[in-house]
Amino acid sequence: MSAQHNDGSYDVVVVGAGAGGLGAAVGAARTGARTLLVERYGFMGGSATNAQVLSYCGFFKNGGAGPEPTVRGVGGDVLDRLHALGMNIAPVRSRSGNWIVMLDPEAIKIACDQLAAEAGVEVRLHSLLSAVRCEGGRIVSITLSDHCGAHEVQGRAFVDASGEADLACFAGAAAGTDSRRGEHVQPASLPIRIGGVPPDTVIDRERLAALIAGYNSRHGGLTRPDGGVLVRLPISHDLWSMVVDVQTDGVTAADLTRAETRSRALAWDFVQLLRQLPGCQGAFLAASGPQIGVRESRRPRSVDDVKAQDAGHGRLRPDDGIARGSWPMEVHEAPGRARFTPIGGGGHFDIGHGALEVPGIANLRLAGRVIGADAQTYGSVRVMGTAFATGHAAGVSAALHRNGQAPDVAAVRRTLQQQAALI
After folding, report:
1. pTM for the complete prediction?
2. Topology of the domain comprising 5-183+296-418
């Protein structure tokens, strides 16, 4: 490897360009910060583009007769940009009864590119975080690796939107006390796109369930016995399928390799079963994502974790709320077994600024699915709609960070409101 090079200094450095990372970077840049957004893949969008999770959850209140937004700001700008690209962003009810927005991954990539560029965010794709340097309870710099070697980047403040808490963990953040953190995590899924099924085909769910039962009696592994999610996608009109869940720690190469290879084999076999249904004879596996869809891996402890009673009662925090959570607490207790607990009150709850802060690391903020939350509430805050909101707040907070001073939460809230966020 070549010698390490110093690639300059930024006001805010964001690691991970999924929903949380894009929200953070655009929010920071709009606050006036010189901002760098780092992503290990060659595109932005997070799970929507790297794992074929082709629906946005968490943009609307839980319950109610119709969709009522709980997320705007950068997240709302993404929806507007998708609409401008010709996408139908009208919310639809999922099988769980909740409002979602169906997606096209290529449109997401373009929308992310456009929003980051217009905000003045410097984006560095194909860059892997490999080291973190800390001094006096602060992150001083990070090391990024690409094909040319290692590059040091300095920053005044940092945002961890990596999904796997790479930045926080490399900086020495304490792991959360939840039993799920490091001992048991929610299973991953392999969403796939299936082509070759005419749009007017009606899937015989009863027959499909019988085929899956027969397969499982011989081989096992298809964890959603009714066939799981089978939804038509916009533009391509492919079927979007989620029928394969596997347990994985989500971070080690060995365990992820096992999960990836196992889930791909199961997805291939599922498509062969589907071809036995009327109208599905031409079905084929059109695409899986560059990686499996990881719901949960390691998570750091925050200053003030969001708790189940906050979501269950729809708790509002008028003094320090910086984002709204509204997706039901969707906890996947094991492969193929999910439990939904509704949000109380008015169908949303406030996420406090303390959920973005890390004890002992003053200039680090958390965004997306690494924010502080207990095991049950994590099932709500991890979704992409909410990740846009917490990311937006984390980016603004990082941009307003002052060395050695406690965060001015009132200033963060004012700035978020000026940027059209809902708080």
Report:
1. 0.96
2. FAD/NAD(P)-binding domain (3.50.50)
